Amino acid sequence: MQAYCLKCRAKREMKNVRSITMKNGRPAIQGVCSVCGTKMYKIGKKIEKKGARAVGAPTKAVSKSWLANVPEDKVFGCHDGRAMKNLEELSAGLQQMSEETFRYHVTSDKNDFSKWIKDVIGDYELSTELQNFSTKDQAAKVVADRSAWLKGGD
Ligand SMILES: [Zn+2]
């Protein structure tokens, strides 16, 4: 798949292609330039190929499992005593927690929320995306958008 690379200022083959949902809720395809490695986007597109589904949009069953409650011993135990057992609770929890609590879990060395999503929920894409956001409002929004998207997933 080709996209315009802003760095090369030319159309380049995109690699590591995957479907993402942008902040405004619209689908897009993200990849990196095969020449210079810069991130590239194709907005308003989804990966249609069947073979790409595993790395792109999850199946309904997978979406459902990511939205489900985690086992009791795997709930996210927040520094402020809050316990969160699914993505929606995490999103609400992020919105409500103090900046101090957020900073306890997210430092330059670690991101407990991202780790929990990767290790317990299993949504690697969201886990990776979350690492790009360093404020709790942004993090809450990313998780909320993702769970809304997973719910309506096609
Ligand atoms: Zn490039």
The low-pLDDT segments are 50-54
Helix content: 25-40%
Ligand identities: zinc ion
Query: CA-to-CA gap between the ends?
Result: 22 Å
Content-based structural category: alpha+beta
Total beta strand runs: 6
List keywords for this structure.
154 residues; alpha+beta; four-stranded antiparallel β-sheet; two-stranded antiparallel sheet; 6 helices; 6 strands; binds zinc ion
Brief summary:
This protein is of the alpha+beta class and 154 residues long. The chain is 38% helix and 21% strand.
Describe this structure in words.
The chain has 154 residues and is of the alpha+beta class. The chain folds into 2 domains: 2-52, no CATH class; 60-152, no CATH class. 38% of the residues lie in helices and 21% in strands. It has helices at residues 60-67, 87-96, 99-105, 112-121, 124-130, 136-152, and strands spanning 2-5, 10-21, 27-33, 39-43, 76-77, 83-84. β1 (2-5) and β2 form a beta hairpin. The longest helix has 17 residues, at 136-152. 29% of the residues are buried. Residues 50-54 have low confidence and may be disordered. Zinc ion (ZN) binds next to loops.
